[in-house]
Please model this.
Amino acid sequence: MSKCPFSGAMSTPLTASNGAPVANDNQSRTAGARGPVTFDNHYLFEKLAHFNRERIPERVVHARGSAAYGTFTLTKSLSEFTIADFLQQEGQQTNIFLRFSTVGGGQDSSDYARDPRGFAVKFYTQQGNWDMVGNNTPVFFLRDGIKFPDFIHSQKKNPRTNLPDPQAVYEFWANNPQSLHQSTILMSDRGIPLSYRHVNGYSSHTLSFWNKAGERYWVKWHFKTNQGIKTLTNEQAAKMPAFGAQQDLIESIDNGDFPSWTVKVQLMSEEEAKTYAINPFDLTKVWPHSDFPLMEIGQLELNKNVDNYFAETEQAAFAPSNLVPGIGASPDRMLQARLLAYQDAQRYRVGANYNQVPVNAPRCPVHNYQRDGAFAGINPALAGAGANFYPNNRANQGEPAEVVAAAEPPMPLEQDAWLDIYDTRDEDNFSQAGALFRLMSEDQKNQLANNIADGLSQASEDVQQAMYAKYEQADKEYAERVKQAVADRTR
Ligand code: HEM
Model:
């Protein structure tokens, strides 16, 4: 590579995007001392045009986030359950990238919203990237992806006023009793984390493992914060700077105080799943630990901040469909909807070749017959000079060929499965919400009722009544406390 003749100067030469040195970055070229700019100001035009294109669409949900790199260390081999290559040898380390986020707010909203926190981990394994795109809650508001856009619309700002809309929030929940378990968690004292270091992470969904023998196990992942869960009340949160969680993460890592999580899994065999009282693929339910104990398998540590927020955190593309041999999906309907949604969003948000952006690029070689598209060759190794079709006769010349050994065992279906629309209205939406309420201390029950009443007191009478009926089905006392807290606000 020849050296730029100007690089011998004291400082790095400033260049235009074509690499040519720029002689003046302070003044435009003008026709005389007081005259207009001339048309040969191509560097000015380049600068302004690039500035106009500095933004990409923000994520439609989870727009506000913070991320860092780190390491996952396996402390217990899972070779009995999975062929996933990063889960074989105790002591094995895998590089990861973890992005935390709030859900509903835009990119410049507050870190202290009462909102779930996203907990998305990219494991750069030797057999491809595995993304665990979870939240800080073990369940979710919905059990069918068809409801997701409606749900998100109801929680975001009102389309006319662009203001928060408690009527819509509770009107959606009043019409969707399946949300009660998650909304109880959200409105509890756990609803506003002190920082990202103080949240747990969960796959929430049931995923799967499969082993050498082709046996499948259903799996839920848990990442327990070693910093302890710490939360804020509404009053405490209101006093925090909007960027507080971002600052906390950056500073703790810069100071060498690396946050970490103990990683655990719950496992259920296919046989157990067939007869277990709770539908194991219902995202609104937990698997009680007494039935499926947590098995500790590793430690996850964050130890390196990003160098550039936009290039890494903003362009990061996590997807539940980023799976590796040994880790699969499950029949969870929400998860299935997500298998499509994320890559679709990222093609729009970042572009067709988003997986070539360094933060997303697998750390193992990528060989395939996908070609071209905007910015193809960001990663030159993927430009692809060889055959661009498959099958071909060139396997012995190094052209990629299928890896039959990586085939996933067949996904079991219920016997006599019929394609239809299954109404899940009759599923039990209330037992686990009631059980959670009964576990709470007096102070926690008060916080829950008051947090609910803040919004519910602004909703219409019919929505209030519908919500009381739901709280009552979870626990009579739950309903009584909420009614009282609403009455205190409307008196
Ligand atoms: C059918 C239901 C769902 C749909 C359609 C959906 C869709 C989306 C979309 C389109 C994005 C933005 C992706 C991007 O632009 O990169 C996103 C981000 C995210 N979603 Fe979901 N989502 C669903 C349910 C869930 C659930 C149940 C969880 C957690 C258990 C979850 C966790 C996340 C997280 C953590 C992010 C941010 C990832 C990041 O940090 O970049 N989502 N979701």
Observations:
- Residues 142-175+430-491 form a domain with the Hemocyanin, N-terminal domain fold (CATH 1.20.1370.60).
- Residues 59-62, 65, 99, 101, 118, 120, 133-135, 140, 145, 148, 204, 316-318, 334, 337-338, 341-342, 345-346, 349 surround protoporphyrin IX containing FE (CB under 6 Å).
